[in-house]
Design a protein that fits this description.
The complex is a heterodimer.
Chain A lengths: L3 E9 L4 H15 L2 E6 L9 E9 L10 E6 L2 H7 L3 E10 L12 E5 L1 H9 L5 H12 L4 H12 L4 H21 L17 E4 H11 L4 E4 L6 H10 L6 E4 L3 H13 L4 E5 L1 H17 L3 E7 L16 H6 L8 E3 L4 H18 L2 E7 H5 L1 E4 L1 H5 L41 E3 L13 H19 L8 E5 L5 E4 L5 H13 L5 E5 L1 E3 L3 H10 L2 E6 L5 H10 L4 E4 L8 H15 L12
Parallel strand pairs in A: 1-4, 4-5, 5-6, 8-9, 8-10, 10-11, 11-13, 12-13, 17-18, 17-20, 20-21
Antiparallel strand pairs in A: 1-3, 2-3, 7-14, 12-19, 16-18
Helix pairs in contact in A: 1-4, 3-4, 3-6, 4-6, 5-6, 7-8, 7-12, 9-10, 16-19
Chain B lengths: L1 H7 L15 H15 L6 E5 L14 E4 L5 H11 L4 E7 H7 L4 H7 L4 E6 L34 H7 L4 E6 L3 H13 L4 E6 L12 H7 E3 L9 H8 L5 E8 L5 H13 L6 H6 L3
The chains are: A alpha/beta, B alpha/beta.
The complex binds thiamine diphosphate (TPP) and magnesium ion.
Chain lengths: ~600, ~280
Amino acid sequence: MQSDLVLRVAGESGEGVITIGETLCKIAAREGIHIVTFRTFPAEIKGGSCMIQVRLSERRIPYHGEGVDFLVCLNQDAVDENLPDLKEHGVLLCEAECDLPEKNPGWTAYKVPFDRIATREIGSRISKNIVVLGALSHLLSLPKETIEKFISEKFARKGKTVLDHNLDALQRGFDFARSHLAKKDSYRLPKGSGRKRLLMTGNEAIAIGATAAGMRYFFGYPITPASEIMEWLAAHLPKMGGVVLQTEDEISAICSVAGASWAGGKSMTSTSGPGLSLMSETIGLLSMAEIPAVIVDSQRGGPSTGMPTKTEQSDLLLALYGSHGDATRVVMAPTSVSDSLRVTALAFAVAEKYQLPVIMLVDQALSARLETVDRETVERLPQGSRSCASPADGAPFVRYQLGGSAVSPAALPGTQGGEHMVTGMEHDERGNFACDEETHTAMTVKRFRKLAAIESDPLVAEFCTRLGDENSEVGIVTWGSSAGPVEEALAIAKGLGISAQAIIPRILNPLPHQELKTFFGKVKRVIVPELNFVGQLATLLRSTYRIPTIGLTKVKGVPLAPSEIVEKIVEAESTLNARSTRAYGRAG
Amino acid sequence: MEELDKSCEYLSGVCPVWCPGCGYYGILSALVEAFADLKLPTKELTLVSGIGCSSRLPYFVKAYGFHSIHGRGLPIAQGVKTANPELTVLAVGGDGDGLAIGGGHLPHVARNNVDITYLLFNNAIYGMTKGQFSPTTTLYPVTKTSPFGLAGEAINPSALAIVYGATFVARGFSVKKEHLKELIIQGIHHRGFSFIEVLASCSSFNTTDMNVARIVKNLEMIPEDHNPEDAIEALRLAADQEKIRLGVFVRNQRPTLGDKFQEMRRKAKGKGAANMEALLGQFA
Ligand SMILES: Cc1ncc(C[n+]2csc(CCOP(=O)(O)OP(=O)(O)O)c2C)c(N)n1
Ligand SMILES: [Mg+2]
């Protein structure tokens, strides 16, 4: 029996495609199966083709799978668009009316009149997706009672008629499959550990990570693909005593965050590229005034309005450098849904401890994908807090102490004897504006010393990981959600007898210099896979470490495929012995 | 004498950077006298500003001060008040700061009825950047960036605040210090968003629009019998072209943003337990 199943459901938006996929995920997560999904969104509000791909596995998986084992198509367009991705010996389950190409490389095809069963037999066209689930539960040996329980939970609120329709639909789909479709393939649901897993999207993980970290003040402006973070928090943060306010724009959002944070509350906003562009000036203010803030950017495709529903990793340089002057900030990027939980908590820990803005970059694909998360992840989140002063009576409070630690204790408004100014202007130790050369130099150094301190803080130690064969000379540096396909590619390459290794920093500013220098000292090739055109991480690495890089970039609005990375690994490996090369480390 | 000493306790000791003859000095003294009258503890006093000559004010006051970026004082003040409702939060800024670059925020803090007091220093010019026209420039059309006259009509700040639904709208004049002090006291007392337009002359770049002699000649106090809940009448008074009306145009009560947040918390708590375990339940 296979340990891993890649299933894709495709159809038209509005046909319940996503519900089929999500129901499968819910059921599998309860069985303790590991899940990673990928879904596309039509650009329009109604209609347009959409699909959800679900990879289910007995072990932890980093990627949603390349090539489909089991394809479910609700209409002809879906067949035409998705059949090329079906593996040679894969299974196709489709609407009975669909035409299939004459040439069949070896797949098994099952046809079910979903439309007819739903409209004629049940009398409810919208129950079609539940008929599909019924057929699937027979073909994949899904635990039917669990599905029934799940459907009962989902439709209970809609009244008995609706619930009965859906239970009927499930039964009829199941019965049709059992009596008409002789199982000719061997695919079935992988075995679960039996230990229930949590199932959530990247956006939900961010919202939960923030709530767990003690964030209670959220200000934001709706934007795809980040809105769900605010929507989840709007529904749940008030339960915890917090507040969510939809502001008039992103400038107001980040400024409200600045105010709430200065007053002592852990505060956050989330947005996408267009919003981060608008926030640039305030990021400089947060840096200058030394105020903690967490800003989440779920990146989408292209400049300007670009491709709002597509994924890309093209805001790295904006996050690193956006805002005038030498404005300090930390930039982080989680790689998966469960990583998003941890890195969000880390963002708060670092922002509070070091009193500066932290920008966390995710992307559309990561924001929207469902993934299983172990409950323990939530229980072991990084923690850090703001150092607060107890000001001496009489003496004026010194907010920006020079000398000693780069972080000076804050006095929250309301603290006796702590009256002081914070300002976006260059200032002296007390916060009064000062434009002399010594002060500006000293204060700039103070702000940048915080970054150096973060780099060596044990808090961040586990947030740079190494993968693959530590002795390999082919190296990969990647970031964010591209880490998934890289991990998968390393495994595939290993299967082909090719070794490679990867380093994945979650903190991109300040870079983990020690780890990277060690890495560059070992490898002779550095491939940098990322989803943007110019190679933004590659640019950063080249300018920081003066090393040549091999770019692997893509701007198609979808994640990198492991095979694309494997190809690069093979290519890089083949050049290894062609000419003598030295390790990169010494160039650093 | 004792009065004077009390208000001096609210001065930080930092010397104001304003030009000699600047109308802002009058606003500063009215402000600290209002604080002294109210006996506000300085530790709970919070002043937020944007950028401009007017926005320098927080440095001169003994309080918690946040001198931020151009046009953004209001949303920052909204954040401060949200995170610590115990604080007395004031926002100050210029006509350019509040009506040009930051003009998009005013309608929203007004409709949210954020419980803060906002002093808009109307000198009808950009003082800090040395003499370009502002959204309220009227009688002095030839400025550094309008050598051939103004393209647009002037905005009337108080009228705008009334239309935006601010629950307290008043206009004062930097020279009428006692009156201004009273307005500030009322504004701070008011539960909700208090908007106070303060006319002040810029001695360096526009002595025409806010010319003291001209204002004194044209000013008229809002009649005693004006009903501050009558927004239409308030608008008529604020928009008066003949006379410059001083006093309280609007005063009415409705829930503040803080009240709404409390209500949301209450409703949300009815929908589920307040702990992480319960929140995670929906993902199981
Ligand atoms: C984003 C941005 N644009 C422009 C400026 C330059 N600037 C500083 S103050 C100011 C106008 C000040 O006028 P006003 O708000 O009326 O305040 P006043 O100085 O008259 O009190 C301008 C344009 C800036 N600091 N930031
Ligand atoms: Mg002005």
